[in-house]
Amino acid sequence: MQKIKIISEPTQERPFLVIFKPQGIPSAPLAEHETGSALNQAICLFPEIKNVRGRKMIEYGLMHRIDTQTAGLLLIATSQLSYDALLDQQNAGKFIKTYRAECISTARKSDGNTNPVEKQGYPPADRKNRVELEKGNPVKIKSFFRNYGEGFKEVRPVTENSGKAALKKLGKQKEYETEARLVSKNNLKFCFECKISSGFRHQVRCHLAWLDFPIIGDKIYNPFEKNKDTKMKFMATGLQFINPLTKQEESFFLKNYPEGALNPQEVALTRT
Question: For residue range 124-141, what is the model confidence (pLDDT) as tens digits?
Answer without folding.
Answer: 988 899 999 999 999 999
